[in-house]
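Kindly go through one protein, given below as sequence and tokens. The question is how this chain folds according to its tokens.

***
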Amino acid sequence: MSTKADRGRPATPAWRLFFPLAALHAAITVPLSLAAFYHGLPLGLLSSPAAHGRELLFGFALAVIAGYLLGPLSGVWRLGLPALWLAARGGGLLWPTALPVLLADGLFAALLAWRLVPRFRAAKKWRNRLLSPLLGLLCLLAIASLAGRLVQHGMLTPALMRHAVLWLVLLMTFMGGRVLAPAINGHLMSSRRQVGAGVQPRLEAALIVLLGVTPLLAPWSATASLAAPLTATAGLLVLWRLWRWRPWACRQRPDLLGLLLGYAWLGFGLLLAVRVLWLGQPLGGVLHAFTVGALGTLASGIMLRQAILRAKGRPEREPLLLPLALLFSLAAVLRLVAFAAGEAWLLLLWGSALAWSLAWGVVAWRLLAWSRRAPARRAD
């Protein structure tokens, strides 16, 4: 929404607002969570692992989605949406059950859905229309999960968080493929005059079906074992799709190698989850393959890639993209092995948190540097 006074003035791209905020939020939240869990720091918003998961899913991830999909913001949207997001994040640390904080959090998710969901309804192919209900569902889960703040130690929040992570896996699989396929094709055409595998629509359709059914079965102990073969098939298809993109042909493109590593974490995470699901157990720590390995690597790479392209730069010349992907992978590995490491478990958790925070701090710095080079856009 923009007024007559706003027309003709430079609009602010949503990524300029939300990408640095999301990066700084991710860098700060994880070490604060560990301090709250194991060292008694009184932070209401991060008082439990489920609350920590909710904050990263519906605080951090929704901010990344807003920055990537909203486009230029003007008028009340330019100030209102970031203000609601900041009020929910900051107020929740001190007053997690305060009505104004809950309203700000819920209103941000509702307005985000209102702006994004209608945008993808008109797509001709059903695979492209997937974004409309999927984004709406994630925003709806964000609102529903606020009930967990009011029911301390309730069973709703952990199950809901596992459910939401699996829907996020579907979103990352779809969006990651839509970013990687044209980028790799462009590289192959310019460097080798070859056509790449592209989106691979049949594989994409199969993954949508498999990953669309899995969240309906996997979070619940009674049906988790039924999700195991679906998850195994999806994991293998993700890795097969990645193989057909020919990662070895991208050796001169560290930016693409970083994104490919993040996409590989989706496949590895799905395969890691198979044994747990087969035994009918909650996914628990296995989900960090998705939330640390895949989300950290893919989100940071896509955020920086968009900022660089908007600044008329070349992503392959950003020297930190591949080291950042490796740092996120280190954080994921340390987190996955921590609780099996005996007495060193807390040290490994802190190592994972510090690697994650260092990576996101660097991402925030590079985002701010590139955003200063990007031209302003005019409001509609």
Summary: The CA atoms of residues 67 and 123 lie 21 Å apart.
